[in-house]
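Quick one before lunch.
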Amino acid sequence: MQRTTSTNDDVVTAARDGAPEGLVIVAEHQTAGRGRLNRQWVSPPGTGLTFSVLLRPAVAEERWTWLPLLTGVALAEACATATGVDVVLKWPNDLLARDRKLGGILATRVESAVVIGIGVNVTTAREDLPVAEATSLLLAGAAAPDREHVLGVALRTLADRYQSWSATGGDPETLRAAYAARCGTLGARIRVALPDGSSLDGTATDIDTDGRLVVETADGEHAVSSGDVVHVRSA
Ligand code: BTN
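Model of the biotin complex:
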């Protein structure tokens, strides 16, 4: 569609109305795009990919925490395959290129379904990026990135990853290895802002079987299920 408030809201409504798994809504322009942690997602019309997918997972609900991470792996693989840009994941599912944010994923639970929203900056010029710390596939070195091509590869890669994971009953191990191989957070010194307003400073040592980030701090190990990670550079 040309214009909508948020493709996630559109797919949530469709899910409530009984739409089948696999529904995809793509928009050229979102007027109220949403990001994680109550942030906005702003993308100048025609320069990025903004789309949402409806999943109705047949695996046990306690495995669903892996869906945003699975999507991150699939999108990182797809961007690399379609454009040659090396994409790294910042836990849980920020897509980074050259240490700058290229895209993000917002998962919303709705009844027995999960809506996965994906935003990727594709041809966005530096002056059109919403924040200075962001980037696009073009700025990260892709010669002439084509949004339709990236979208096609992304949907195929996501479908492949989702079907393989579903076929194992949502077994996290294969996915965990693929995630770890792409994750720039593991092994890094980090600061995590937690939803209760506190923060943790330490080293990211592992991803546990629920997809939580394990952080080693001065007072021991913490498994974090939600938060905003900053990779801390040593001086
Ligand atoms: C984030 O990094 O904070 C997640 C951003 C997710 C943005 C996408 S764009 C398509 C879909 N519709 C929305 O309103 N948000 C997601």
